[in-house]
Amino acid sequence: MRFHGGNERAKIDFSVNLNPIGPPPRAYEIATNCLKGGVLERYPDYNYRNLKRAISEFYKFDGASLVPTAGGGEAINLAIFAFKPRRIAIVEPSYGEYEDLARALGIEYSPIFYRRDSKGFYLELSDLESTCKREDALIVITNPNNPLGLYVDRRRIYESLSRCEAKVMVDEAYRELCNRCYIEIDRDLPENFIVVRSISKWLSLPGLRIGFLYARDGELVEKIEAIRQPWNIGGLSECIVSSLLSMEREMRDFIEESRMYIAREREKLERGLRSLGIKTYESAVNFILAESPYMKNIVFELEREGIAVRMCTSFKGLGEEYVRIGIRKSWENEKLLESLERAMKH
């Protein structure tokens, strides 16, 4: 069974990880202009030249090395299908689709877990050493991590894994919403690395489904392009995202505003959770990992009030005492704390 982050029955859904301030102010105006321009009445450009140009100019890298995709999920699938690894080492807990795809394709799945100490979770990159030596292997790291919210400095990852025989895929789906991260793609990305990004997440427009993949390995990029489905991104999505990214200053201001809002609301929510006796873990992004021995009952009481959080039972290494809580509007975060206070009394 596949788990996802949305709960359609919830009145307030903290199980999703979107940008809490919502889409950019001009998103709907741009969507209307795209529709008036007849974008639904013609096929998209198969090569997505405008979209590639907009992405490469916004993120400051060579557009010849990118593949636009229908969200980060398609980028992940394409990379695995193109590279055809015999082993996938996934740093867990992580996005469940990696393991699902590995098992479906008969690829050896090798979980590498975040370690824990009294301060919380941390990544020991030396644990990847055995897989690092295999040229038929793929190492997968989500950074910032979902569901932990932890960010590992990318230079540390490069220094440890750039000389690997294995390919290294870094899923950076939440990077634009991370207050410790810079936005640009590294032009000096190691040759054995693949970077995956989501654009629709930080735009808070998940219905558009747009992301991209970047690698300096030209042969791998050609293989990925060869298996990419024609017109994998709809014309309306391409038009909206290309237009938004072309407004570079406005979108960078939007990202900065989003990060400041997330940091402020995350701190308030963490403080409120701890005051209720719920343990929280350090996060750099738009969600919090929380722990309580009573979490199963707490979640039940929240659901009775129409509030959904993400139980972490489907994430390897975590159990029913953990939940992931997405940051939402300030009044919604306050409502959650009020409901949690009532739930703790049952």
Automatic annotation (TrEMBL):
Residues spanning the signal sequence: none
Keyword terms: Aminotransferase, Pyridoxal phosphate, Transferase
Stated family: Belongs to the class-I pyridoxal-phosphate-dependent aminotransferase family.
One Pfam family cited in the UniProt record for this chain: Aminotran_1_2
Organism of this sequence: Fervidicoccus fontis
Domain Aminotransferase class I/classII large: 11-340
Cofactor or coenzyme needed: pyridoxal 5'-phosphate
EC number(s) on file: 2.6.1.-
Protein name: Aminotransferase
SUPFAM superfamilies registered for this protein in UniProt: PLP-dependent transferases
UniProt-listed InterPro entries: Aminotransferase_I/II_large (IPR004839), NHTrfase_class1_PyrdxlP-BS (IPR004838), PyrdxlP-dep_Trfase (IPR015424), PyrdxlP-dep_Trfase_major (IPR015421), PyrdxlP-dep_Trfase_small (IPR015422)
Coiled coil: none
UniProt-listed CDD domains: AAT_like (cd00609)
UniProt GO molecular function: pyridoxal phosphate binding; transaminase activity
